[in-house]
Write a structure and sequence with these properties.
467 residues, alpha/beta, Purple Acid Phosphatase, chain A, domain 2, six-stranded mixed sheet, 15 helices, elongated
């Protein structure tokens, strides 16, 4: 007898809820159809469903995301880095208290070196025929960042080997939920032949028909709910054997919406906005203006508190992180979230003076100021002007008609090429290609779980109406 199993999977929604009513409508109809055909169906999320750029996720610290997963009757969920390292320890530890699905996560351990009580490393899903599907969850191991928050994240490949050994002779096939990224997924497919189907995420790749490496079918559905992943398994239930696995993705753009889910999301947004608006941070006597391409009192305030928070010799932050101005009067949590929604943490980096000079010269170009940025935690549009605290620049217009930096002073003294300076800055500069000197610096210190908006709240509370 041939048994059919349908697996629908989402990944990296990042709280982009505009496609969620379409996904809701489609999944609801497919569930009814598969029930009529006596076919098994599983619904799985591969992490980063939450992104605190959205008011719904910010106000509830992701708990409304969990409600949405419950409402659509997800079976299994693992966490991504947005659930894992943009939450405080306590917020993540309580995130899934009301989950009606199973959280599978094999490589995260709590302060007592135990699996958190809200997660299990794997589950064995038994089909009506008795066929056993082992399902394992793994997430990307940002070791230093998890450690700062109090968690212990372990090497997912080491844990996978241990878990597969434990499941040996207990299952008839293996599905891996992997928030590790395409490179690690391909390595797993090469090195772990026991994995039959790998549902991926993290790197936002799109595998429209899946990708087969050796015995393993790799799957991923891009990001933001733009696609819904679908895997079909054909199983010989008498021989207890997987005989076929195929993958495809469903573009969600043209799918009909669930009106009920649209209404639900509108209500959640209204409630979340009220929650944030009712949390008054401070009151200011005059507006704080934002300008992406000029230094303003607002961007200078951010640079000042960044330096204070990290106790740096100097600080640098791009004006583009402040998306809007603050009007005179009460400042609420909603205001700070709206103008600074990024899941970006403060950090401190140590560099030599000659390297610092290179960073400043690189930052002081029109190309860098106008650079459009995506990812790295940034939820704005352009880099904007670099704003400093503890740095004085002397500019001279040269024969090319352009202002050039001709002198750099650090706290009133000429920059010393041989001296080591500590820069208080933002963690996005330690990733990617923006500032290779900062990215490659050996000594870094991250400050978590506070975001830039938390530093602004701290500063505005401290200075009150003097602003």
């Amino acid at each position: 007898m041939i048994e059919t199993v349908h697996i629908y999977h989402t990944n990296d929604l990042h709280s982009h809820f505009d496609r969620w009513p379409k996904i809701t409508n489609y999944i609801t109809k497919m569930r009814q159809l598969h029930q009529q055909d006596n076919e098994e169906m599983l619904l799985i999320d591969i992490g980063d469903h939450i992104d605190r750029f959205h008011p719904i996720s910010e106000a509830s610290y992701g708990k409304i995301n969990v409600k949405l997963l419950n409402q659509l009757q997800y079976d299994y969920v693992t966490i991504g880095n947005n659930e894992g390292i943009t939450m405080s320890y306590d917020h993540l530890d309580s995130l899934y208290e009301e989950a009606e699905f199973k959280v599978l996560l094999a490589n995260l351990f709590d302060r007592e070196e135990k699996l958190p009580n809200w997660a299990q490393p794997y589950d064995i899903h038994v089909l009506p025929s008795g066929f056993k599907i082992g399902i394992i969850g793994l997430t990307v191991h940002y070791i230093g960042l998890y450690k700062l928050l109090g968690w212990n994240i372990k090497d997912p490949l080491v844990i996978l080997r241990e878990t597969l050994d434990e499941l040996k002779n207990k299952t008839d096939m293996i599905i891996l939920m992997s928030h590790l990224g395409i490179n690690e997924d391909e390595q797993i497919a090469r090195d772990f032949p026991e994995v039959d189907v790998l549902l991926g995420g993290h790197t936002h790749h799109l595998l429209e028909k899946g990708k087969r490496i050796n015995n393993t079918l790799l799957c991923c559905a891009q990001k933001y709910g733009n696609y819904l992943g679908h895997v079909v398994l054909k199983i010989d239930s008498e021989q207890k054997k997987l005989i076929e696995s195929t993958a495809n993705v469903i573009p969600t753009n043209s799918l009909p919406e669930s009106k009920e889910m649209n209404q639900t999301l509108s209500q959640y947004l209204l409630e979340s906005t009220h929650t944030l608006q009712n949390d008054v941070i401070a009151e200011i006597n005059k507006p704080l203006q934002s300008d992406w391409f000029a230094e303003t009192p607002f961007s200078k305030l951010l640079a000042e508190v960044l330096r204070e928070w990290c106790d740096g010799d100097l600080s640098m932050v791009n004006a583009g992180v402040l998306l809007d101005s603050l009007p005179k009067g009460k400042v609420t949590r909603e205001d700070l979230h709206r103008i600074c929604p990024h899941p970006i943490n403060p950090c401190k980096v140590w560099v030599k003076g000659d390297e610092l000079k290179e960073i400043i010269l690189q930052a002081n170009t029109k190309e860098m100021e106008n650079l459009k940025i995506k990812g790295l935690g940034f939820r704005g549009k352009v880099m904007g002007k670099m704003v400093y605290n503890g740095v004085e620049l002397t500019m001279t217009k040269l024969s090319d008609g352009v202002d050039h930096i001709t002198e750099i002073n650090i706290n009133g003294e000429e920059l010393d090429p041989e001296k080591t300076y500590s820069i208080a800055t933002i963690d996005m500069f330690t990733f990617g290609l923006l500032f290779p000197v900062i990215r490659d610096a050996k000594d870094k210190k991250y400050y978590m779980p506070e975001f830039l908006r938390d530093l602004l709240a701290y500063k505005l509370k401290a200075i009150g109406k003097t602003v």
